[in-house]
Every structure is written in structure tokens, then in C-alpha cells.
Amino acid sequence: MSLGTVFKFKNEGNAIDEGGFILFDDKKIIKAIKQEAFPFESKSDLSALIEAVGECPFVLLGEASHGTSEFYEVRTEISKILIQEKGFQVIGVEGDWPSCFTVNNFVKGFNPSTALDALKDFNRWPTWMWANEEVLSLIKWLKEYNQKTQNNVGFYGLDVYSLWESMEEIIRQLEKSGSGDVEKAKKALSCFEPFHRKPESYGISAAFYGEDCLDEVTELLTTLRKNHLQYENGHEESLNLKVNGLVALNAEHYYQSMVKGGPDDWNIRDHHMVSAIEEIVKYYGEGTKVIIWEHNTHIGDARATDMAKEGLVNVGQILREKYGKDQVYAVGFGTHRGTVMAANRWGEEMEVMNVPQAALGSWEDLMHAAGPNDKYILFNNENAHFFNNEIGHRAIGVVYNPEYEHLGNYVPSVMSERYDAFIFIDETKALTPIELASLLT
């Protein structure tokens, strides 16, 4: 699913405004927001949310865009508290495994030596998602915390896009260990080489001409799983190899499905992210607690949105179904207005864009109408009925056009079913990217 998809509400006898949203009694919802919301002015105000998390082993922290500073900053503060007070050991993010593993090595004191060096591998578009000042601050804190406490909190990428980078990392690591399995890895990579790192070229060839590399990557992953204990020497080599192998396999499926259209590519991606989480938990051991940073469209239960009608699932839904709703705590984020870092088209230069005031009748509009201040709501059995209307909820991707956001950036959602909590920042600003060009010279 693209965040550019047009979402409209069904008209079942309800009045609909010009933006396509069902009109309901706004005043009742605004009153309920005023009644149920906690003010949020500093991290000390988060105590009710942290208490509500309880002993959930999976805490999912969303974002309404990939380019908003406050979303990163607030997730950082929540993550710090969860790590310090509730023993969380893992942060998993919507990023590539190889580049995030460089950060993981840094925060655990392996290498590289500086936080800036740790972000150099985020050199593929959209670079600003993780190579930014907000993440730089987080990873500096993580390294210092690990050193002071002798803890082992890790930072991992859960996404599926890094097919070539993951294959190259597998070969590099197997060569370093002197393993004979490196020949299988080179054979698998050679199968992909004719496509010159162009996923769409591979997808077309595999999907429509039957020229795929499935057998090669399946054989490689099977070998890596069978021999994983041979690769471990204290720097998480076995985990690194297994997840890179998983990326190669699922990326192959993903790029085939991508060119065909439909829900399969989205679903493959989100199932992969859950599989990566489970590999990390298996490596760390039973009882491991995981914080997940991803877009709202991944962490908020898809069944509470129109995504379900399109056959789409997501990380929040899959985890709830597999482990139980009481084991997963999903926190959505949103804003009324401000600025954001995004691009006009895929692959184009990033720029600071204005985020207009939220559409009339949307969730963000009602949160603002309840008071132009930052706040959060904890959804529970007692208040869920106040928030069970299907309502437009803004979602901004890495590609964004503010002028036309009313046509495709509002996802119809039942908020009390989609999330366990929602954090609203009334006015936000774009995050601050780190210019990688100067670091790579």
C-alpha cells in the first residue's frame, strides 16, 4: 500500500463533507478528548503511559511521517524510560538491517568509533530517515548507557529492501570466518548480478519470465541456519548472517510481488519485519522486550482501518494475533500542522515542506479543537466507545504533496482499536538530516 492511495469513507446514510469524511457529532468526540487526554509538556508527563505499558514485551512506537523531529524525540524519551525502568533490550526500526547493524556495533562498543561514523551506511534514499541529528542523539545515549550499566541494548533494522547489501555482507562475513559456505553465497549473489541493483528489473524478470533466484537464496538461508553456531565469535555474527539471509529470501519474494501489484508486496514486507523481530528475540533469549519504531501504518492494527478491506496486514496486527493483544502496546503519533522533511517524488531531493492544518473533521483536527496543546490519550475498555467512529487519520510518507493531501493522506481508522495510546503534538517541525556527503569523503 502506498501512502498516496486515496482513502474514502463509505456513505451508509451519513452526511459526508467535501473531504470525503463522514460527518458525526464532533462535539461529543471533542468533549471526550478533553475528558480523557493527559497533558504532555515534558517527559515527566509520560508516567501514565509507561504505567499503562505494564509488562508488555512488545511496545510499538509509531509516527505520522518519516520526517518529523518531535516524533523521533518523543520516541527517544519513551525508549529511554522503557530501557531504564522496564528492562527493554532491543530497539527495532523501519530501516535496513546492514546499515542498522553498523549502529548496533557502535552502541555496543565494537566499531565504528564515533556516532557520526555509525550513520555513514544510511546512504541510500531516503537518507534522512535515519541519518539525522535526532537519531544521532539516541545512539550516543545508547552507547553511554551500555557502557555505564554493562547492558547489551541493541539497535536493529527490520526492513526488507537491502537485498544486495545483505548478500554482500553475508559474503564478507563468511570470507572473514574462512567458511566454505561462502561459495553458496557467491553463487546466490551472482544470480542477481545481471540486474545491476535494479529491483524492478529483477521483479519483472522473475514474475513474468520465470527467471528468478529463489532456489539459490533458499539454499543459502538453509545453510546459514544449519551452520549458524559455527559463525559466532561474540559480535553477533550468527544473528547477522541469519537475518541477512532472511532479508535476501524475503526481498526476492517482495520484488517479484511488487511488479504484479496487489497486497502481496506490502504483506511480505510486514511479515518479514515480524520474522526479523522473532530472530532477534530468539538470539537474546526468552523474555526479551522489544521497542519497535515504525510508521503508524505498520504499528497500528490494520484491522481497524481500510487496509483490511484491501487484504493488507501489518506488524501491529500480526503481533497481536500471534502473541495476544495484552502482549503488544501500540502508540500512534500525529500532528495538527507544521513542517516535515520529505520529497515530491521517489528518489528526488529532500526538502522541508509545510504541513497544512489538518483536514476538517479528521482525528488531528478534533485533537486540536480539544485544545491547541500537546496531549495523549490512553485507550481502554472504559473509554473506547468514545473513539469507535471511523475517522480520517493523517499519514505522510517519504513522498508528499501538501497541496493534495486531502485526496490521499487520510486513513479511515477506528482509533481505539488501531492503537492502545495516541500522542498528539499540535505543531511540529522537520527533522534535521546529517549531510552524509562530507562524512563519506
TrEMBL record:
It comes from the Bacteria. Pfam families: Erythro_esteras. Gene3D superfamilies: EreA-like (biosynthetic domain), EreA-like, domain 2. Coiled coil: none annotated. Signal peptide: none annotated. GO terms for biological process: response to antibiotic. InterPro entries: Emycin_Estase, Hydrolase/PRTase-associated, UCP036794_erythomycin. This is Erythromycin esterase family protein. It comes from Pseudoneobacillus rhizosphaerae.
